[in-house]
Inverse folding.
């Protein structure tokens, strides 16, 4: 054991001060520096993890937006397909359209006299089917038939109409009968990469 009495007060102060400094330095190298290194490493890992999380979030958000866009495109395509005739050929699509028009006419109380597919025309990935129909009907039945066509899920429009009264005069208690010829257009959907000459 060291005899402190042989040192002056000033020497004892410097010995204690130096010893304290040495202990602090040893504590720094033995405890503080490893802790700081671990903290820096952990901070780097946290920063890297935060960056990865941000990237993953961006990817997920992008995928979500892409999924929403794809869902919008799919819904739009489904609505287009639902509004169109989708048979493999123009003849089959025209037959589908003819059956639907006949059903609409019957619902309005009309029996078609003739129904004849006319020449189809291409338009921006679609083919416009044309169907000529003739019938005799009172004005109320004609109006009901036109409403039936306009309100159907399939997109059909009357592009030409020729309407004439069958007689000059009708008694007040008899509805006027009209001779009607209509040209009705409907869409046939052509999937992408389908040859435009698919007939």
């Amino acid at each position: 054991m060291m005899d402190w009495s042989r040192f002056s007060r000033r020497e004892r102060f410097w010995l204690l001060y130096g010893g304290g400094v040495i202990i602090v330095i040893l504590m720094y190298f033995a405890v503080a520096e490893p802790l700081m290194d671990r903290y820096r490493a952990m901070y780097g890992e946290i920063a890297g993890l935060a960056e990865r999380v941000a990237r993953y979030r961006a990817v997920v958000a992008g995928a979500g937006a892409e999924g929403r866009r794809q869902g919008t495109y799919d819904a739009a395509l489904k609505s287009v397909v639902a509004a169109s005739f989708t048979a493999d050929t123009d003849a089959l699509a025209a037959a589908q359209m003819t059956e639907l028009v006949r059903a609409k006419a019957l619902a309005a109380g009309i029996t078609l006299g003739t129904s004849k597919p006319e020449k189809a025309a291409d338009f921006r990935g679609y083919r416009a089917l044309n169907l000529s129909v003739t019938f005799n009907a009172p004005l109320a039945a004609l109006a009901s038939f036109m409403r039936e066509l306009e309100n159907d899920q399939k997109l059909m429009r009357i592009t030409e109409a020729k309407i004439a009264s069958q007689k000059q005069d009708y008694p007040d208690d008899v509805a006027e009968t009209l001779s009607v010829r209509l040209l009705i257009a409907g869409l046939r959907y052509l999937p992408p990469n389908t040859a435009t000459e698919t007939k």
